[in-house]
Known about the structure:
Distance between the termini of chain B: 45 Å
Strand order of the largest sheet of chain A: 2-3-4-1-5-6-8
Number of strands of chain B: 0
Oligomer: heterodimer
Number of domains of chain B: 1
Radius of gyration of chain A: 30 Å
Strand content of chain B: under 5%
Helix content of chain A: 55-70%
Shape of chain B: rod-shaped
Strand content of chain A: 5-15%
Number of helices of chain B: 1
Shape of chain A: elongated
Order of helices and strands of chain B: H
Number of strands of chain A: 9
Largest sheet of chain B: none
Structural class of chain A: alpha/beta
Amino acid sequence: MSTPEAGLLVALVGNPNTGKSTLFNALTGLRQRVGNYPGVTVARKSGTCDLGDGQKVELVDLPGLYSLAAASPDEQVVIDALSGNIAGDRRPDAVVLVVDATNLLRNLFLASQVAELGRPVVIVLNQADVAKEQGLRIDTELLSRRLGGVPVVLSSAWKGEGILDVRRAIAAALDQKAVLKRVNWPADIAGALAAVGKAATADTGKQVSVADAQRLLFDTNPSTAERLGWTVAQRESTLRSARDRVRYSGYNPMAAEPLVHYAHLRVVLEGVVTEGLGKAGQTAAVDRLLLHRFLGPFLFLGIMLGFFASVFWLAKFPMDWIQAGVDWTKAVVAPQLDAYPMLQSLLADGIIGGVGAFLVFLPQILILFLFIGILEDSGYMARAAFIMDRLFSWCGLNGKSFVPMLSGFACAIPSLLSTRTIEDPKARLATAFVVPFMSCSARFPIYALMCAAFIGPLYGPGWESLVMVGMHCVGLLFAVPTAFVLTRLVLKVKPQPFVLELPRYQMPKPRDVVWRMWQNAAEFVSKAGTVIFAITIIVWALSYFPRDASVAERIKAANPTAAEEVVKAKVQAAYVEQSYMGRFGKAVQPVFDPLGFDWKITVGVLASFPAREVIVSTLGVTYSVGEGAEADSQQLRKAMQDAKWSEGPRAGSPIFSLAAVLALMVFFALCSQCGPTIATLAQETGGWKWAAGSFLYMTTLAWIVAMLVYQGVSRLT
Amino acid sequence: MNLEAVIVGAIVGVAAGWLIRRWLAAARRRKEGGCAGDCGCATKLKPKK
């Protein structure tokens, strides 16, 4: 695992929101490798850190955590990584503890626990600039002495300040091997720990460390005992009598550890931090407004409205440029293949039309992730979670459900994996069930297409943004009652306390925001070049074949006086209708008829079940093929705007009426159209029962709600 | 069968084969644990080799 140059491994540990990852990026310079810890889906982020003088170490960024009590898989990973109990990974040669300089007492609790591991330590007091702004002065030399001589350095990772000091401190720690001063346990607790360690060593035949003995005594989670192979029968009486001993000494066994550590830390920190005049009240003042009980939700809604309006406004010109590029490519390629109509259609209508229709949304995706990055890094995203907390608490979800549900707005897969941080299995199940309702970024292209083609031109940009926000809320609107029924009536989840730390407001760091935006853009383009590309070819083939030449002759004979262009368009439309896709779409269309979907939309909806963003490229292909290769690629919007029912009671009326447009968006907002999400749900819930239930429930709900929207709006307009 | 049909058939065949192979590989990776990397999410979590 360690780099060949040095062979030294250094672990980066700290509470969440201490700027640990920013420091990691600054130390490794984005030269990172991302993998997984074996057996779990906790990311292992590592990189090479140059300490100067040619010395390099491997730096591993461990998940953020508040204490070493393993309550979730990522916390367990940190404990295992620090104690060298991960297969294929060595015990770190040193530990860098990233501490929020504005909240030393709470952050050093983790340091106090890490002290028990006996590894060389560097304490990095990050966000030192904020501490300075708040008027806090920290005596690092005194703190270092009190902590046993370990290096203590100040840094401001997001500003790039103090990074050199951190590098030097790591080199010094590796050289001097100074360890943190351990806490002095009261005699009875020390006795209980010794008894547990001795019994576990005797029963398992393994050397049980002091740190392991503490986990065995203080944690209710049996993970340490299981790792050591100390069975329930072996440990039950030992742990009971040890905990009784702690209780008799006046401590609750479950609370003894933090009480003793905090008492130790209060002595350590005495005189270390002095307070002067600062800007401490600024964040609190802004929060009084943004987190106001009544104003807060309205401000949140306003911010989201501005957010989506800006996405449309800023993306308009780059989208036009990409569109022009697609048109140009099509105009250049198509005439070269006039002698080969099949190949011409595949390239121009299928590949360029389909992939182009998808790629046009790249600017919107870029701006979307730019804004998400700004909201996250400025500290507002955590406030958004706080505002939504009231809603989620009401529907009985565990507090930890916010993070998966919020990240579900980007992609449901990592959100489902992140439900593993929820300790209560029932709450985890309920959260996993409702996460797919969150409006992931794959739904964005269809909303954007419908808004740009119909809502914007008909009602103006204000309504465009409003509908966009509305569509992102539709999923939430149904997730809340679903969660309520699941948690209160089906699973009977017990409410659990949850503490959400609100980070300070700060200016987002351009490099981090742009880097994240770049990663998402690369993913989007890569998807267009791979999955969307391949699916587009299949959809084209299904909507091109079979081709019966007699169709063209019949239409020409029936329209002897019509212009050549008109006849050609009619022939193309007839070909698509009698293609495999056309036949299939027409056969299934009656199911979607109450929702106002014609057979082409039906084809798009069906093709989108493996991945919902396929709808855009499918519509691109079906409408492009139907209109002929010569038409420019603005045709998708125009063809959709011009599309009319050819038969039935709606003959002559537009297919994409306001009712149908809204019904289509609502259907996509609620329907379970993502193969990987369903598979991941099955994996996370330990079987296909809940995954199948989720698919049936979401798809049926989507059909019913979209039908009600279509029928309701049709009657009103 | 003309050359044009052969070329188009080959392109469609390769696309279909690649998709099937990719989905099978994703299913296998998912079985091993973690995100199979087929979701388009920015979080690239892959099982350790």
